[in-house]
Amino acid sequence: MRGHDRINTYLPDELIVEIFRHLGSKPSRDACSLVCKRWLMLERMSRTTIRIGASGSPDVFVKLLARRFVNVRKVYIDERLSMSLPVQFGRRGGGDQAVISSLKLNYEDGESESYCLSDAGLAAIGEGFLKLEKLSLIWCSNVTSLGLRSIAEKCRYLKSLDLQGCYVGDQGLAAVGESCKQLGDLNLRFCEGLTDVGLVDFALHCGKSLKALSVAACARITDVSLEAIGSHCRSLETLSLDSEFVQNKGLLSVAKGCPLLKVLKLQCINVTDEALQAVGTLCSSLEVLALYSFQRFTDKSLRAIGNGCKKLKNLTLSDCYFLSDKGLEAIASGCSDLTHLEVNGCHNIGTIGLGSIGRSCLRLSELALLYCQKIGNAALSEVGRGCKYLQALHLVDCSCIGDDAISSIASGCRNLKKLHIRRCYDIGNKGIVAVGENCKYLTDLSLRFCDRVGDEGLIAIGKGCSLHHLNVSGCHRIGDAGIIAIARGSPQLTYLDVSVLQNLGDMAMAALGEGCPLLKDIVLSHCHQITDVGLSHLVKRCTMLESCHMVYCPSISSAGVATVVSSCVNMKKVLVEKWKVSQRTKRRAGSIISYLCVDL
Known about the structure:
Elements: H1 6-10, H2 13-21, H3 26-33, H4 37-46, E1 49-53, H5 58-68, E2 74-78, H6 97-108, H7 119-128, E3 134-138, H8 145-154, E4 160-162, H9 170-179, E5 185-189, H10 196-206, E6 212-216, H11 223-232, E7 238-242, H12 248-257, E8 263-267, H13 273-282, E9 288-292, H14 299-308, E10 314-318, H15 325-334, E11 340-344, H16 351-360, E12 366-370, H17 377-386, E13 392-396, H18 403-412, E14 418-422, H19 429-438, E15 444-448, H20 455-464, E16 469-471, H21 480-489, E17 495-497, H22 506-515, E18 521-523, H23 532-541, E19 547-549, H24 558-567, E20 573-576, H25 583-589, E21 593-595
Parallel strand pairs: 1-2, 2-3, 3-4, 4-5, 5-6, 6-7, 7-8, 8-9, 9-10, 10-11, 11-12, 12-13, 13-14, 14-15, 15-16, 16-17, 17-18, 18-19, 19-20, 20-21
Helix pairs in contact: 2-4, 3-4, 5-7, 7-8, 8-9, 9-10, 10-11, 11-12, 12-13, 13-14, 14-15, 15-16, 16-17, 17-18, 18-19, 19-20, 20-21, 21-22, 22-23, 23-24, 24-25
């Protein structure tokens, strides 16, 4: 019968809730909750995660959320984000309308500075979300140990706690350790109020369950804390440590006391070979190792890692000035299961070291080389011959790598999906043509400021690859022909950056409008030949556009800006000079318009 509600008649609550769980986005769930009172109630009961900004009376907001969503298990609060009211806090607010009105009034009056999340808000979280398992408080600077204690006392099932940038003290962390016996993940980055006293107390009470710990910029956390971690946290699997106050003694304790350690990320300028050799000897389960800005260790450390950490799969070496080819050769010979390698600013690592990786680490799937002036074509030729499973290659300012290297990668690594190259001035059309002819699975290509790449290379890419992401910013030899080829060959393109292309004009914009209907983000800044006509062709078919950057485009006027704003209903950000925005456009879409330079 017409108008008969068959869904609510025949479907039980459990099935509708299961359907809600399969919805891809929060707006979709919000929309479903407005269909009827039953769906509103079921959606509230089934929601397990909330994310809010910590400005605009978050304490009041949290109390309101706790009343509405009783089964929440994950709460994310970030003081850097602004807060918007969910759709459910509209007409069906019922008895909460007074609270909503108060919240809106405070927010609209511009008093959000005085309404950062406080201990009262944390108390509301503890009282309202008793099933809470994960709590993230990012840069919530007004919360203290008192609020953290209220969370600890109420949320006994807490498993993950992120306090990045919160000025909590030792008493709060100790309370968490005493009450939250299931806590396995703790982030203390930029918690400047903590000392060894709090972390040691936490380790004593909660060490058995802790599996992941991050500490950075905590000046009063020293080797004393790491010794406690090594003594009481036998199940620790992940340690991220950024400190100039930690020395060998603390890391030695962790290496000896945490045999299950799998992930180790260190930026500790006072740690030397002694500690890292102990890691290599004692942490045989290590899978991920990242070393940043180390100036007091040498190839001896990498030899120990290569000899002892046979399960190592991911290695990052950044600004480690005393490492050489010998260290990388030791990794290659001992860690044949390596899948990810990043070498950044290690000026003594060259062609020989990387060549050994290409010959020995045949499962390598991602390689990043940044500011590596001594690595040449021969090294990447070895990678091309040996690493058939390579899927991602990142090159930044590698002056000795050219077309021959890229051609070798293209012919040998045919599963390549991502290729990012920036300021490698010896790479030109020859290498990019080889990529287009051989790498049929490539979907993400970035060639920023590679000024020898022109239309010939992009035409080959357009014929051989279907891209989703393309960045050719600063490749001044690329013009309409290259972008037209991309438009015809990449109908699934969603992101395009063609900034600083002086030879690009309206013909390319028309081709993009015809061939790339899924385009969401486009950067046109510094393109002098693109006009209002080209923009109108672009937005006519690219109706899914969400962001458009077009500063320093002298041939685009206020009429072109108005065309973009009025044609793209999904637009979230337009970056343009202030004088190109008419009063009418400002009234229509002022919230999505950003200005780079207000006086231009």
